[in-house]
């Protein structure tokens, strides 16, 4: 999927400034706290379920539909059954009547919702990153649809990228991570995709290795179909 950039008011260089700002902000230290999600953790049975860690931020929107094939995934429609992982309660007050803090983040963005998954090389790297994470339980013996979209807006312009959701058939008792990845196949061309990795199960923090998933691709009727990779 190609990165879409919209520049407002004819300010062609503004988006470069926005991109630079994001790069600088991502280099800052973002201290987060782990908050245990007991209701989600109670669903975990290593004999019949698996665990998935999603990485997201104010610009990266994660959602999933457990136990569903691509054909059952209907975002934006009346039959939409997906679950969003970053829900904002908007109970906090910020200076200058802002709806976020000066980093463009809300209270929920500083909380990792965890269910007991082991740390990984990825989570260790996030201690100085804008990204946080949420951990969920999905069933085995059937696929689940995983989705992360990117959308950034400012007074100067906006940028977005919507990769195809992926369909994961997990193994019982395994732990996975799903990430949004930007790629540059050509100069001035940026694309994006999702990758799913499995935790090694050994050591702390654990290594990860990318695993095979199917893609959810829209057909001519704008319904999703499963495409084998």
Note down, in words, how this protein is organized.
This protein has 229 residues and is mainly beta. The protein has one domain. Helices cover 10% and strands 39% of the residues. The protein is built from 3 helices and 15 strands. The strands form 3 sheets. Strands 1, 4, 5, 8, 9, 10, 14 and 15 form an 8-stranded antiparallel β-sheet that branches. Strands 7-3-11-12-13 form a 5-stranded mixed β-sheet. Strands 2-6 form a two-stranded parallel ribbon. A hairpin with a 3-residue loop joins strand 8 and strand 9. The protein starts with a strand and ends with a strand. The relative contact order is 0.24. About 10% of the residues have low confidence.
Any idea what the shape is?
globular
What's the assembly state of these chains? single chain
* Ends distance: 15 Å
Rg of Cα set: 18 Å
**Number of strand segments:** 15
Fraction of residues in helix: under 10%
* Percent range for β-strand residues: 35-45%
Low-confidence stretches: 6-27
Sheet/helix structural class:
mainly beta
Order of helices and strands: EHEHEEEEHEEEEEEEEE
Q: Biggest sheet: strands, sense, closure?
A: 8 strands, antiparallel
Tally of separate domains = 1
- Tally of separate helices: 3
Average pLDDT level = 84
